[in-house]
Fold:
Amino acid sequence: MEGADQTMARSADPVLAQRRRRQILDAAISCFRRRGFHQTSMQEICAEAQLSAGALYRYFPAKADIIAAIAEEDWVGKEALFNAIARGPDVIGALCVLAEHALEQCGGESSLAADVIAEVMRDQSLSLRFVAHDAHVRRRLALSLASAQRRGHVAFTLTPDRAAGVVILMLDGLVVRAAGLGAARARPLVEDFRAALELIFTPLRPHGLRTAHPVTQETDA
Amino acid sequence: MEGADQTMARSADPVLAQRRRRQILDAAISCFRRRGFHQTSMQEICAEAQLSAGALYRYFPAKADIIAAIAEEDWVGKEALFNAIARGPDVIGALCVLAEHALEQCGGESSLAADVIAEVMRDQSLSLRFVAHDAHVRRRLALSLASAQRRGHVAFTLTPDRAAGVVILMLDGLVVRAAGLGAARARPLVEDFRAALELIFTPLRPHGLRTAHPVTQETDA
DNA sequence: ATTTAAAGAACGAACATTCGCTTTATATGC
DNA sequence: GCATATAAAGCGAATGTTCGTTCTTTAAAT
Structure:
């Protein structure tokens, strides 16, 4: 066999490759936000990334792979957020922060949430990953809620799993409306979200002293 | 100037035109469900509708108009559903029926919900219509809930408007997850939805006999 | 000298839309 | 009634563009 250890020029640097991938992903995210997955051309992404088509295709073999990478990144980020939640006593507050965060991700510019879901519906490998991530998030949130209940930070009558389901339902709804209405118009919905949370999760005083009434004052009957 | 009132032949029949529009819309919906708005070609829609491109363009001047018509139709349908709700005593039941209905619309095949939202984000005229329809639905639901409360069918501590916001949040979440997970996997979420509703809206006995506690009973403190 | 990285022109396929033509149905003149 | 003029309805190939991707070439670094 001819030379395996001949001259060796310019070893492939994985850290530089990772940097390029990030640069491409950032450019793609920016373009996709502006025009959506299928209305954005590869040339647009190339221009935004200041890279040629040939170079880009060295890092992502197809457009679908860019989309998949963006979706994956999004889900991993969400998992991290959910993992960090509800360690403190103020579970409701933490969930509202999460809601605000979700809202701001769609702020000003368009979010990719709708595009990602649309893609998940039609791409089987994306679908599998989505289902897995979703199950993980729900399980994690249920555990956190159960833990918070055990520590006496919060009281609720639902199963932790069901409670997690409800919370996720509302958060997803928030994301959709933020996408459809824009962040500004969707912001008041966070207060609706909070109000619902306070009905579902009765907050308790850190030392067991209960609050008077978890909800708004009554209107006339 | 030659004949203005010469012979007059074959008057344009608006009912036939409407029939053709429907045929085209049905074909487009079918295609769009399968492949999404921007991955479906006009030729595909023509084939599905068994119509030539030239004929199709007589009824819809552009692809975007087909999309807009489908979205509009969807929203009008939703408004009708919300208008009919909560006339009876079982508000929660009616809302769950609505949830089931939303779920089944995505059953088996993909829904267009995500595609529509993605389009709304980037098309200004669509966005205006969406905001209007959304506001209308929310107002209507709030009125229905207030009415049900006045009649003693249900009791809740939230503002009717806030309550409506929460319900819509959850319903939207349901639609998204039905789209992402498929109808089968999303079905259990309807029970979560119902459980949440029962915490927010305490059902009352038809003759005004109130149930014991509008909110959750307390756990240990 | 050799290999990686980048470039960017080139590729065929597919796209939304248009256009000139044909068919079809009807209202009129005889 | 029949022929005919008229316009709506429909057709489908053609249009020019744009697409995602590939390929050949060049630059840089070891």
